[in-house]
Amino acid sequence: MTTSSLRQLLIICVLICCFQRSSASPQVDALTERIRNRIEAAGYPPLIEIQGELIYASQALPAFYEQRGFAPAWSDGTKPLPRVQTLINAIHEGLREALSPNDYHITQIRSINELFKDQKNLPKQDRFRLLVDLELLCTDAFLVYGSHLLAGRVNPETIDAEWQANRRDADIGKVLSKALADQEIGTALRNLLPEQTGYWRLRQALTDYRDIRYKGGWPAIPEGPKLQPGMTDQRVSILIQRLQITGDLQDIEADSNFTYDSRIENAVKAFQKRHGLEPIGYVGPQTLAALNVPARDRIRQIEINLERWRWLPQDLGKKHIIVNIADFRLFVVEEDSSILEMRVVVGRDYRRTPVFSDKMTYLVFCPYWNVPPGITINDVLPAIKKDPGYLASKNIRVFKGWDVNTVEIDPYTVDWSKVSGKNLQYRFRQDPGATNSLGHVKFMFPNKFKVYLHDTPAKELFEKQDRAFSSGCIRIEKPLELTDYLLAKSPGWNRAKINAVIAKNVEQTVTLPEIIPIHILYWTAWTGDSGIVNFRKDVYSRDTKLYHALTEAPPEIEEIMGN
Known about the structure:
alpha+beta; L,D-transpeptidase catalytic domain-like; 4 domains; 17 strands
């Protein structure tokens, strides 16, 4: 480009800027300066309080206005634009997402917007101040509400060290800028919601259960002898009402029916299944307790689990594995449909299985088990001290040190009474075989928690209703069926070959033909394909922590803005 051409280009740019500046009204110019002064006077990051409301997007909000030269986004310099009402309507929709509009300045925004509808009673000297207030409140509301729709109101890692979120991210400031340019405030916010079908099913369940509560909830069934088929009891009438309200039972008159017949038995079984109880068909103490949980508490469970959906990645994978810790079950999912299910054993309460997403890349046949230090100290050492033959009975070898080339030692040469966690110099490794704690195969998705799926010789544990017995890793009921699925596209692998490899009792690693995402989750409420809501016990008391976090003041939005 020649010097003359460059000069001409600069002149054109200056003229465009001048035209744009001159095209803005004096009121817009004045409001722009007031917005800039208000933000700059608040320091960095700004501490701004408006009508008792703090501005939470303390980094994203200044950045947004700096990028637009502090020009107003929500008014024309004299009055609010119609998009303010659109924002108000969109924030009200937050109720459907289990988010409170009161967290997003809704009262203050509405109040200022209403004041400008009758400007005759609005002193001129107050207009600019109120428009600046409205600007900052609306922008903060969009940024914070948008971030909560996108990634959740709470960062799970701040309340639970065993929870690693893979939350979606976006530059919410850019989302707002585009929404303003396209005149699509409501659409832009709705587009930030999770796309997964499971979220939308649970969202509908929230509406349904709120409607149940609005109509009075359900009756509590009095204590008494267990209710079972063939008996007559006045409480049966109350049981019928209770089951009808949640759709477990239909087409039975409750007023004069006191006999526990087969229809009621089947309805009780359906209720028990969706609450993770053994479907025995009669109402004992556990079932009675579940029946009498108030509608308010079930609504709270749904709200908590909607928040958890917002912590998940945008794409779970066309094929993926889900382990629901609270349900003690594993699901292999393709295109939103479960094609393989099995029971699992998860960590004890004091050795909790963590929550995270990762990618399964390989499996190991006939694995050795290198006993983790925690299990060594808490389980193995006490067992050796109690029974010197423990190691031999479990096919566990002892090595001095953790180096790859360390030498195996005879355990009978060690005075175990003097060994503790403080002076532990030994590594324990269990040989492959029938007694190996990992069974015949383990499934690997390397992660910071050192958690994986594996077979187990303790098959009897899968018959238990509550299955929190492991040390954190996940034992699965059908390891060979899962192996079949994972190796189906790997040439030469079939069940016969799998059995032959296992029979050798020699450790062998096999890379999967395709990487498959795996999501270790903790859902205490979800809705299946049929639309029926399932509830589970809060086995790790994680619901309680999250509920308290959700009811606190909104946190400052985090670095999910692309900064």
